[in-house]
Every structure is written in structure tokens, then in C-alpha cells.
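Consortium newsletter contribution from the modelling node. Members have asked for a concrete example of what our holo predictions look like. Here is one, prepared for the coenzyme A complex that several groups have been discussing at recent meetings.
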Amino acid sequence: MEQMIRVIKIRVATVGLVVKGKHKPMLKGQKVRLRAMTREDLERLCQFNNDVEVELAGGGDPPLPQSLARLQAEYDADLGRGGRNGTSFAIEADGLFIGGCALFQFDHVAHRCELGITIGDKNYWGQGYGTDAVRVLLDYAFRQHNLHRVYLSVNSTNPRAIGAYRRSGFVEEGRLRAHMWSNGQYIDLVQMGILRDEWAAIEKVDA
Ligand SMILES: CC(C)(COP(=O)(O)OP(=O)(O)OC[C@H]1O[C@@H](n2cnc3c(N)ncnc32)[C@H](O)[C@@H]1OP(=O)(O)O)[C@@H](O)C(=O)NCCC(=O)NCCS
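And here is the predicted structure:
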């Protein structure tokens, strides 16, 4: 699990944007726009990744320092491998890069994947931006990728994230007791998921 969270951080590490209206969004919500990542985003992303509060909320490994040079090297190496940007998106609001979100761990037999999100700009916490981004990502997962289930795990000490996931239709499916060491204490890891028909009922579309 810690490894999966690390994967998200590395992928999100290629996210970004600062210039208003410069990049065309791929997906639009009511408050956010999701688009591909760009190299010019990395400076702001570096600030997010070195913010201990943001990193602790994201879960996984203890916060580690990260240089802009490393972020840029990872971005360039990823670019050199070709292809598109996978299923990682920059989250934009008011023309500003505020964080990243992604689908990963795809299982094409069981039609499921994991979802991850980090809003690194704390000015945008607790105002519905995360919920909106998750809803856009769920629509993309179920409608475009024809998935059956989307799941995630979240620290029990993160009520803001749990609230946003619940509002988006995720339900708690289980809890790994004292599974994580976070900020000086053992904490539970909450498993959450949403099935395609549950999403369809919320969005009032055919499953
Ligand atoms: C988690 C995250 C994406 C949520 O996005 P957000 O825009 O802040 O959240 P929203 O405003 O959409 O929704 C938050 C919900 O939790 C509730 N909430 C917020 N703070 C809370 C708190 N301290 N205690 C209880 N509930 C809280 C809000 O009331 C809201 O629910 P409601 O609308 O039903 O009232 C964002 O805060 C973030 O990226 N945080 C840092 C990284 C992180 O935690 N990532 C998730 C790792 S699993």
C-alpha cells in the first residue's frame, strides 16, 4: 500500500500549472478543470511536495525533501519514454495549478482501479474542489474506461479526505487497524470503494 501511495506521488510529481488559461483542459467539473501535466508546473509542485502538512495528509512514507532538479529529471525521463501521460491529471482552478489526481493499479480483468488525489494549494482545501475533482475522475473512470469499481485507501486521521470521498459516493469497506505510522503515532488505514451502479445512481445515468 505504501508503495502504491508512492507511485501516486511520483506520478503526481509530473503535474502542474501556473499560467492562467494557458493550457486546454481535457475534463471539466463545476469548479475544476483536469488537464495534462507540463514541465512549467514543476516549480509550484515542488512547493507542494515539500509541504509537510500536505505530505502527511497524503499518507504513505514519511515526508522527504524533494528538489526541483529531481522533479525535472523525473519529468524528463518520463517524457523520454514516450507515450501519453497515463491517467494522471493536473487539477486547475481559477486558472491556477492546485494539485494532481490520477487513476492507477488498473486491473483489466476485474475492471477496477485505484484513485489518488492531492490538492497541494492549501488555500483550496475544504471548499468542494476535491469533491468536484473526484467526481470528474469517477466519470472518466466509469464512462471512458468502462470500469466496474474504483477504490482507495486513506488515513483515518484525514477527515477532510474521507468527507470528500463520501460526498463523491465512496463507502467505507474496511479498516486496517494501526496499519500506518504517521506523525508519531500508529493510525488506521481506511479502505473505501464505489461500484459502477452506485455511481450511476448518484449521477442519474444508466449503469
Ligand atoms: C483530500 C482533499 C483532496 C479533499 O479536497 P477538499 O477540496 O479539501 O475537500 P472538499 O471541500 O471537497 O470536501 C471535504 C469534506 O470534508 C468535510 N471536512 C472538511 N474538514 C473537515 C474536518 N476537519 N473534519 C471533518 N470533516 C471535514 C467537509 O465539510 C466536506 O464535506 P461536506 O461538504 O459534506 O461538509 C484535499 O483536502 C487534499 O488534497 N488534501 C491534502 C492531501 C490529501 O489529503 N490527499 C488525500 C489522500 S487519501
